[in-house]
Write a structure and sequence with these properties.
Collagenase (Catalytic Domain); three-stranded mixed beta sheet; alpha+beta
């Protein structure tokens, strides 16, 4: 799925780490690097020299997924944990590519791409549509 997302954005060279952490670690990362309090489901750090969306050059980044929060969200939504983890990975990759959800238009675009990627990898996933708010 990640390769598919990267390929559709013409990323040819990349190095992405995907790390699963607990609530304590994600809360610490959230506070230390983003200045936010609380537990979140996914945090990404783009380590590339440029912002992405259609940029040239290698994509370098770290994605941290809170396994505990992912499990809670999957239960809340009545989804398999695997599907929610795939969704969070897609969400993280899209952030590394430069997508965001700071406003409604950008959020719709990002979540549409996210759900398309999930649906291709985890049929019949993608049922959450643009309402999926992974990364909140």
């Amino acid at each position: 799925m990640i390769r598919g997302i990267l390929s559709s954005h013409k990323v040819r060279v990349c190095e992405i780490s995907l790390t699963f952490v607990g609530k304590h670690k994600i809360k610490s990362l959230n506070r230390e690097y983003l200045g936010r309090s609380g537990v979140t489901d996914v945090i990404c750090f783009n380590l590339s020299e440029q912002d992405r969306i259609d940029s040239e050059g290698p994509l370098l980044g770290d994605i941290y997924i809170c396994l505990t929060r992912a499990r809670e969200q999957a239960e809340e939504l009545g989804l398999p944990l695997e599907e929610e983890l795939i969704r969070l990975a897609a969400h993280g990759v899209l952030h590394l590519l430069g997508y965001g959800h700071e406003n409604e238009k950008d959020a719709r675009r990002m979540f549409k791409l996210q759900e398309e990627a999930v649906g291709k990898h985890y049929p019949p996933a993608g049922l959450l549509g643009s309402g999926s708010q992974s990364g909140r």
